[in-house]
Amino acid sequence: MLKNQSEFMKSTIIALSLFFLSMTSAMCQSSTEEQKIIQLSKDKWQWMADKNVDKLEPLFDDKAKFVHMSGTWKKAEELEIIKTGSIWYKEAKVHDTAVEISGKTAIVWNRITLVAMVRGNEAITEFTVTEVYQKQGKNWKMLALTFSSVRDTHQIKK
């Protein structure tokens, strides 16, 4: 009987160890994916500031939608706006970021102060920007980007 208890304890310890190891691995993978998405979002802001449509074009899904204070448009229009500078995203100062990943979908919320040139006038505006990404193959593609005007005291719930 003692031998059976000893074997049972060994099996239980091994099973629990494997369980915790797999949970730790899954959490690390999630954290790694979250970090990749956060970096991709940061890169996107820089590419927008640099008017680098060559980097943005493959990031934006062909069916992506962009919601701004003055309207909603699709990928081609957003790229044209960035390229021509009719809206120049000079600088996005990111104050807070939250990410949630569910399957192949990632949602990023950034609380930002946007410094932009809009039709020749500088505008400094507080926004919470919602970005929706989808994993397509090995790459993340942006499906939606929405600017929501908020007060500078707004906090993103994590």
Topology as a string of helices (H) and strands (E):
HHEEHEEEE
Per the CATH scheme, the topology name is: Nuclear Transport Factor 2, Chain: A
Principal-axis shape: globular
Question: What share of the residues lie within helices?
Answer: 40-55%
Query: How many DSSP-defined strands?
Result: 6
The DSSP helix count reads: 3
Structural class: alpha+beta
Biggest β-sheet strands, sense, barrel: 6 strands, mixed
Kindly report how far apart the N and C termini lie.
51 Å
Mean pLDDT: 85
Any low-confidence stretches, pLDDT <50, length ≥5?
15-29
Give the CATH level 1 class.
Alpha Beta
Domain DUF4440: 37-142
Keywords: Signal
Signal peptide: 1-28
Protein name: DUF4440 domain-containing protein
Q: Your description of this structure?
A:
It comes from Haliscomenobacter hydrossis (strain ATCC 27775 / DSM 1100 / LMG 10767 / O). By secondary structure, the protein is of the alpha+beta class. The chain has a single domain, classed as Nuclear Transport Factor 2, Chain: A, CATH 3.10.450.50. The chain is 41% helix and 44% strand. The chain contains 3 helices and 6 strands, in the order ααββαββββ. The protein has helices spanning 2-49, 53-59, 75-84, and strands at residues 60-68, 71-74, 87-102, 105-118, 121-136, 139-149. The protein has a 6-stranded mixed β-sheet with strand order 2-1-6-5-4-3. A hairpin with a 2-residue loop joins strand 5 and strand 6.
